[in-house]
What does this fold into?
Amino acid sequence: MFAPARRLLPGGFRAIYLAPVLALVALFCWALASPIGAAPDDDYHLTSIWCADSAKTTACLPGSESWTRIVPQAATELSCFAFDQDESAACQARELSGDPTPTVETKRGNFVGEYPPVFYSVMNLFVGPDVFASAFLMRVVTILLFVGITTALFILLPPRRRSTLVFAWVLTVVPLGLFVLSSNNPSSWAVIGIGSLWIALLGYLETSGRRRAALGAIAAVATIMAAGARGDAALYAVIAIGAVLFLTFARRRQFFVDALLPVALVALAGIFFLSSHQVAAGLDGFTASEAVSAADAGAAPAVSGFGLIAYNLLNVPSLIAGVFGGWGLGWLDTPMPAVVTFAGVSAFVAVGFLALRGIRPRRAILVVGGFLVLWLLPVYVLVQGGDTVGTGVQPRYILPLVVLFGGLLLLVESGRLPLSRVQSILIVSTLSVSNFIALHMNLRRYITGNDELGLNLNAGMEWWWSIPISPLVVWIGGAAAFAALLAILAREMRLQPVVDPEATPSR
It folds into this structure.
């Protein structure tokens, strides 16, 4: 499977060409693995999407107050199963229909500019005559954007940067990333944007010609996606751009000319950052409506002053572990077995330590700095709000930073991670099994609720989509596609050349 020669399928077709298709299958299966309304605050985000275009009166009407709107019933009540892991999604069929007629007044939405408008405005284009079908189409659009941008980056980046692109994603997306990327949550765009921005910009500064122009365009699109989805992602974009400029800095006139694009992107992200009310809430501590209740995330002691700072500093790893399954998915009500978290953290740490071999000073500074930001930024937000780890800040908020940190950690100078064949097989196997378990647990939670356990997902179904594909097929198909994707990518990375005649030397 990881042979050192480039084996071609019949007709000269290389296995790597299947990677985008397998990624689509894996993510589509994750999109089917949870009902509409399963992502955190989906009632808020869906009503925000439906009301993003004030001229579309068939979808949303003005409310009795300036901060309220009238929307379809389903948009506000889709999450009827939230917070109770034993409750399946059958309540949707009992209580809701896809009727798009605005009938319910709500204050839950982006009606006073709490979030940037780009994500909501783009998704509003796909609002149609059925709430459920429209929301699922939006999931598909996000998946296509992610796979399309990542595929374009793989083609356009210098070959020595492709290994970083691939491993930065595969080592950080199981399971939270896969869930978020296939959801209706704006965090999906934040993750895509930050994870793509920094490496596209690095490629822009290391290449020339049309390739350079295309990478610059991707960096601009990624900045708009991230900063236009969440205010905190605008700050992350500035951090990512600063990291790339530090890594590539050179006392040459050409560098300062090249830096005009990154500076312009910083200004763009700054505009989104300063205009987002969500950012002000984060800097001052999240409000109760945005916080995670201690009952859901695990009770935390009431502390203040130095004790609050110390408690949060010592417990931030819980947030980072949440990216790998340490916290529940969805409304934090879909717990993952400990083995999922253990597998994800182990794979990330193992590959990360290998990538530190022969690290150069600039990247070492970036890795240390990225680690400190990942650790200290959540502490600052929590302390400002008087909150402890378990309330106020969720793992999905820092997921873009985890992807960015993973990329900087894996940015090896040789262009190829020093993984042996056995190590590659172990990493692929570990992540494949982790995804296999996580996907089953996510499906089970909504099909029957966790009060009914069993391997056969087709047995005793209380909820499922009106499609001719069974839950068991989605589970096996999604897990197999992801495993095959990892195997193909791992083999390709072991064969990846590190010399690129079109790339300029790394500064």
